[in-house]
Amino acid sequence: MNNDPAVRLQDYQVFGEFGDVNPSISDAATYTFLSVEKMQQLFSEEVEGCFLYSRHMSPMNHYLTQALAAIEGTEDANVMASGMGAISTCLLQLCGCGDEIVSSRTIYGGTYALLKNFFPKLGINTHFVNITKLDEVKSKINEKTKVIYCETISNPLLEIADIRELRKIADERGIKLVVDNTFSPMVVPAYELGAHIVVYSLTKFINGTNDCVAGAVCGPHDFIASMRNVNDGAAMLLGPVLDSFRSASILKNLRTLHIRMKKHSENAMFIASELEKAGVKVFYPGLPSHPQHELIKSMINPKYGYSGMITIDAKDAETAGNLMICMQEAKVGYFAVSLGFYKTLFSSPGSSTSSEIPKEEQEAMGMTPGLVRFSMGLDNDIQDTLERILGCMKKVGLLK
Ligand SMILES: *Cc1c(COP(=O)(O)O)cnc(C)c1O
Q: Which of 31, 179, 251, 371 could form a disulfide with 195 if both were Cys (CB 3.0 to 4.6 A apart)?
């Protein structure tokens, strides 16, 4: 297997019905059969190239799953209608009533709310830990634990999960390590490093155009097939299906992911180091000042950099708010949640993407009210962008 995810994707080649350079979009919910036996067979096992019903699998979703599996280096994948659809079905496939999850406390707000508020209704309880403290992770695992859950680069403080070490802990206890790699596709080869299962919100970097929500679960074929099982598969039975037309547009966007990731990373590295030099408190894994810089350096595919996410401390909520409005007026980007877009996006995690996390818990995690999270865009003149950001920082009193 080539160790460059972009080369593996490039070698994934499919034709349309008429030799089209993009695969044909199947506009169907159901598929005809020429024999009774074949239909019976499909209800009991997967048959290559045969489709039953589009909630189970459709040709275009199949192509997208194979392209994502090629990038991640996994045997197989499933695509869903959102990142949350992927995360919830993956975890429900692994856990049932009475089971427990040990999760990083610094995770996407929606996932946090799912684990903290929704899963307990199903008898699935979660212990939240500081994922950078491996002893704390170990101490919360017991005979009920089924999953260790974390994000490679976490939201919003950009802490790094040591996937290699977490895998060792999971294997010692015979449980699964599930990693959300949404912030670092291609950048961090999460599966190669040791994740049993890798989940994605395709909505972000992978699609890159902010025109839809979608998600994926990448992993070994047996697990992925179990999610689509007609009798007890969470994806099949809960039904968060991605539409074929969306799937087709995501597959096309995927073809430029490697170029975009390099540019997002290059721009983020430049802005992060310049802002740090100017005296701003900056969190960026690519900076030597990041407490886990050496760790992430040992995990990345160097040619893709350190991804496009930067968090800064703008001192207090009011300054952070003024800064974001000023930057939007200066056309630095948009004051909006989400990430991985061609334009820069910025938001204040405490009052938006992490607002599901109670204030006291935010404090314990080191989340201060003045944090501003940036998802750096694909700006061609990043020096000009820097000047606009610095101009706004002076205007709102963050810099002199
Ligand atoms: C956005 C996001 C999700 C949820 O994905 P949706 O596509 O919005 O459902 C999950 N994890 C992370 C890290 C995210 O950024």
A: 179
List of residues 6+ apart from 10 with CB closer than 8 A: none
Give the ligand 1 atom nearest the CA of 214.
Answer: 7
Which residues is 79 bridged to in the sheet?
216
Protein residue closest via CA to atom 6 of ligand 1: 83
pTM, 2 dp: 0.96
- Is the shortest distance between the CB of 205 and ligand 1 below 6 Å? no
Q: Is the CB of 109 under 6 A from ligand 1?
A: no
- 257-395, CATH topology level: Aspartate Aminotransferase, domain 1 (3.90.1150)
pLDDT of the residue at 233: 97
| Contact of 38 with 50, CB cutoff 8 Å | yes
Right CATH for 5-254 from 3.30.160.60, 1.10.3720.10, 3.40.640.10, 3.30.70.100: 3.40.640.10
Q: What is the pLDDT of residues 375-387, one digit of tens each?
A: 999 999 999 999 9
Give nearest CA residue, ligand 1 atom 5: 83
Q: Give CATH 3.40.640.10 domain extents, the chain.
A: 5-254
Whether ligand 1 lies within 6 angstroms of the CB of 182 is answered as yes
Which token pair is 17? 């019905």
Asked whether the beta carbons of 28 and 54 are under 8 A apart, the reply is yes
Ligand 1: nearest atom to the Cα of 338: 1
